Amino acid sequence: MRIDSARALAWRMERQFLEPACAGEVDDVVARLVAVPAWSGDAQYAVGVRRERPVRGDVGAALADGRIVKVFAFRGSTQVLTPENAAIHLALRAASRMWERRSWQTHYDLTPTDWPALREAVREAVEAGPLTPAELAEAVTAHPGFRHLGPALSRVDTFLKPFFWQGDLCFGPSRDGEPTLQALGHNPRWTGMPDLDDAGRRAIRAYLAAYGPATSAHLQYWLGEGLGAGKRRIEGWLTDLGDDVTALDLDGAGALVLTEHANELAATDTTKAVRFLAGHDQWVLGPGTADPQVVPPELRPAVTRGANVVISGGVVAGTWKVADETLAVAWSGPAGPPAEALHEQAERVGALLGRPIAEVRVTRVRL
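The structure assignment produced for this chain is given below.
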């Protein structure tokens, strides 16, 4: 089976609710994308641009009622995931057991045998409800063996991440502008950690369902570099999936797609659809900014820094920003800027940002 990148990207745009923008609920989008950046990106915009009828504040509402959770997951940063996907991907993140490294033992004066009691103290502290990091530190350091951990526990930093990875904590609602931490187990949708190998197979399926067709290098980038899953484990999970995954030729390179999607992919028509995406959108983070089929190399520095991007047919073709009531587009696509499509999408940008767009100014940039 042979597929060119234009057809692959058109299919991926459909899978990610970008063409058409037809998702129903917030958690439908978050589930499909697996993880949506919560710190470095604009989660509200990323979800809204994919919904048929977006509502401002709907991401916050979904967090409040537990349909999605905010955790430390990929690459040590924070994302929002559905509880089901959080269980799968945190299981992979926890498998590296980073907190057992000698550097951690020395720095925090903790041995691996100390962690079960420490985790129990943390869970006990948040049992009654969300706490600020300072409040969590006060509660945990009341235990004599953990008195030295006050500084490490009192800020949202490296030391707290293993409690997220092991399913003990997630972020709660902000209190007076300060983050809070709450028990992930209190979420009625939390399923608990699955078996590691089961989680690995499900993680591969989830990735291919949203970001396929993908190469083995893409899987290593997503699960290996992103979550610390070892290359050998990833290869083993792929082998386990067997006929559930189909190999194909993507512009002369080997790639993978879920077998259930192969015929649909082959029948997809290419598209020239234009979309305005916020910086660090999963469209570019999912395959990685180093993927030249999505991000032309000359645009990679701007995309990596978090510039808002314009995609045309799935390929980054420029950047955009809003100043006052002007939407300024720096277009660098190989063909001239599609004025009509840009103006049509400008209306949606204004609605998503909650601000009027009176003018669209397009500048052709040759890189």
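Interim note for the steering committee: The longest helix spans residues 196-211. Residues 274-364 form one domain.
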